[in-house]
Amino acid sequence: MGAMTGLPVVDCEDVAWFRDGAEMPSAARGAAATLARRIGLDGYRSSEVALAVSEAATNLQRHANDGALLLRVLRTPDRAGVEFLTIDGGPGIPDVGAALSDGVSSAGTLGIGLGAVARLADAFDIHSLPGRGTVVAAQFWARGAGAGPTGGAPSVASGLTRPISGETSCGDAWAVRVDDGGQEDPRSAASARGGSRSAPSPEPAVLVVLCDGLGHGPLAALASEAAVAAFRRSTARHPEGLLRDIHAALRGTRGGAVAVARIEPARGRVLYCGIGNVSGILLGPGSRNGLLSAPGIVGQQMRGLRTFELPWKPGGALVMHSDGLTERWKADDLPGLLRHTPAVLAGQLLREAGVRRDDAGIVVVKEAW
């Protein structure tokens, strides 16, 4: 993965969302301790994970509006860790640096325990917009008692899924993997349009997929899971070849809207191909470019695949999301966002644009190479 290519990718397995409520801190703490032990963290580290999650959940309960905490597993080829994200709708933190100092607390703001959480975590990131909301992300990996942070497992990509209100399974799914380069897959070469201009580079690249299964609930989740499985096992390197493999895998399911992107750092470009209502946005400092998808339903009706090529700008990010997020968000309304990790960036956009009446899925690939 990352060691071979310089493009680190960490797999995420979402476990559970915990909503604001009187029982949220205790429920989240118990789940975090159980999860940490299950993936192999020792008793001491598991207790630290539980403490950090409890502090974060208590902050939400006491000080935040519409707070939620996501608990999940992170995996690399040789280890596993725990990550949590908190997302809230305000009031925000006027001075994040002060809030991270021990002993700082003020009524109406998130401040209690943030410094302790940051110390316990191997990787920690926070972005807060006063009057709008805060997103916190923290990773916890195995380490000896008394040892300092490991720096976590940095990844060029992260994403979030959230089920429609009343459901426990989400019909949206995403995945990312690294293409280490090599010989061109025949199906990719045949499907590439524009000749050598859109043929995949032999250099390492990041491949990303987002699927919005038709409808919501367990059957939509089955479709999106099938799309992710096909994406992972496909040998295609071009977005069109990957979409064709996903189309074949989704026959017999509800089908869905699917988009696939290929980010090539060496060539400084993005290749993007989508079918259905998935939004693709290429962000750069002071710029926003939309990426078009064709009408259709992958697994049922898919015609006229077309790959779009855009330049990858330094300091930029690729955002892909389902229609569980509106397209009315503006990066300019979220100052400083592009300086943060993909997980926090995804969390802020979900907070800003997510709707409760549909499944929501978002994935972000951000320059880190």
Automatic annotation (TrEMBL):
Pfam families: HATPase_c_2, SpoIIE
Biased composition (Low complexity): 188-200
Domain PPM-type phosphatase intervals: 191-367
CDD domains documented for this protein: HATPase_RsbT-like
Residue stretches in coiled coil: none
InterPro entries listed in its UniProt record: HATPase_C_sf, HATPase_dom, PPM-type-like_dom_sf, PPM-type_phosphatase-like_dom, Ptase_RsbX
Name under which the protein is recorded: PPM-type phosphatase domain-containing protein
